[in-house]
Design a protein that fits this description.
The chain is an alpha/beta fold. The chain is built from twelve helices and 17 strands. The two termini are about 25 Å apart. Bound molecules: pyridoxal-5'-phosphate. The site of pyridoxal-5'-phosphate has 15 residues, from helix 4. It catalyses: N(2)-acetyl-L-ornithine + 2-oxoglutarate = N-acetyl-L-glutamate 5-semialdehyde + L-glutamate.
């Protein structure tokens, strides 16, 4: 009999009653150190007092009004995003998938309004842009698209980070290039600064619109407000979600004035997108993460975690191969199935997330403390030691 929850997830037998900072707590009081943070969502930890205050204050006044009216909380968040990024304008969504849909529509509409329609959008293998029919067409992996019939046409996947393939594929008929500066689901695979510059240059030469998907790597995760800032290049359109709401459903599409020029009144909309509750929380998140002191702390703690993880890899050469990523978006390339390390971690009350390319993801709250970092690596060390002595014997 089908479970009452549609069984599209393989769920671990863990259930949490509350959260506190970097910890998730079961009903019996068992505390798990959370290095998944809801997959980079709980960027400021669980039950962050500033976010709880922003949410409850707004909840007591006004939850929802239609986008038929002015929404001051939405205006404030848009202003914060525009002030702090390449973008001139923002549209708010409830998720990363919805941001992907608008990014695709915006790029195609731009060319349509120019009177020279372009449809083809170049993407990369291993990408993840969401689960809508458009977003799975963009990523194109068999695992995501199989069985769903005809997909949105016009996407072409190139081998990951293959600049020669991009050079060969891009032309003055290319509508857009859509890419994650650091692939998340694909296994914490960063583009080099040189590749980021090459992509920007090829887009400039052909007119193609550059779309960065920063749903996972954005919002201070890498130690800059957005990951592309490390390379010095900016996109024309950017998708944001996950960390921007700190756990409240919120996403956004940011764009330059030119890239957004086709999106006039009536061309797009969302009932819930940009609602006062989400935007009040999002504005508080932005206030906190744009503080230079906050970003400096993320970078300091990232260096500490990375150094300890290098030690962990050296101590368990049969389990781990290396560390990659940037800031507090780190991956441990594994020599065993990453799901086995995740399971062994559960038995030591530490939560991590598997990804493709044999990679274990570590995406802790950006507010994690030095002591919690040390504790996390101690627990991962014990989990790895168990796998060395009894591979695949872990239960739970
Ligand atoms: C999670 C994710 C998405 C989809 O976001 P949802 O909020 O799950 O719709 C898109 N792109 C990237 C890079 C992601 O990590």
């Amino acid at each position: 009999m089908i479970p009452s929850i549609l069984p599209t997830y393989n769920r671990a037998p863990l259930s949490f009653e509350k959260g506190e900072g970097s910890w998730l707590i079961e009903a019996d009081g068992t505390r798990y150190l959370d290095l998944g943070a809801g997959i980079a969502v709980n960027a400021l930890g669980h039950a962050n007092p500033d976010l709880v205050a922003a949410l409850t204050e707004q909840a007591g006044r006004l939850w929802h009004v239609s986008n038929l009216y002015q929404i001051p909380e939405q205006q404030r968040l848009a202003d914060l995003l525009v002030e702090n990024t390449f973008a001139d304008t923002a549209f708010f969504t409830n998720s990363g998938t919805e941001a992907a849909e608008l990014a695709i529509k915006m790029a195609r509409k731009y060319w349509y309004e120019k009177g020279a329609p372009r449809e083809e959008i170049l993407t990369f293998e291993g990408a993840f842009h969401g689960r809508s029919t458009g977003a799975i067409a963009a990523a194109g992996s068999e695992k995501m698209v199989k069985g769903y019939g005809a997909l949105m046409p016009g996407f072409r996947q190139l081998p990951w980070a293959d600049m020669a393939a991009l050079k060969a594929a891009i032309s003055d008929r290319t509508c857009a290039v859509m890419v994650e500066p650091i692939q998340g689901e694909g296994g914490i695979r960063p583009l080099s600064d040189a590749d980021m510059k090459t992509i920007r240059q090829l887009c400039d030469e052909t007119g193609a619109i550059l779309i960065f998907d920063e749903v996972q790597c954005g919002v201070a995760r890498t130690g800059r407000l957005f990951a592309h800032e490390w390379s010095g290049v900016t996109p024309d359109i950017m998708m944001v979600a996950k960390g921007i709401g700190g756990g409240f459903p919120l996403g956004a599409v940011l764009a330059t004035e030119a890239a957004a020029s086709g999106m006039t009144a009536g061309t797009h909309g969302s009932t819930y997108g940009g609602n006062p509750l989400a935007c009040a929380v999002g504005a508080k998140v932005m206030e906190i993460v744009t503080d230079p002191g906050f970003l400096a702390e993320v970078n300091r703690k990232a260096a500490l975690l990375r150094q300890k993880l290098e030690g962990l890899v050296a101590a368990h050469p049969g389990i781990f191969e290396g560390v990659r990523g940037q800031g507090l978006m780190l991956g441990l390339k594994c020599k065993v199935a990453p799901a086995e390390v995740v399971k062994a971690g559960y038995a030591r009350q530490i939560l991590t997330v598997p990804a493709a390319d044999e990679t274990l993801r570590l995406l802790p709250p950006l507010t994690i403390t030095d002591e919690e970092i040390a504790e996390a690596v101690t627990r991962l060390d014990a989990a790895a030691a168990e796998l060395e002595t009894a591979p695949a014997a872990s239960s739970l």
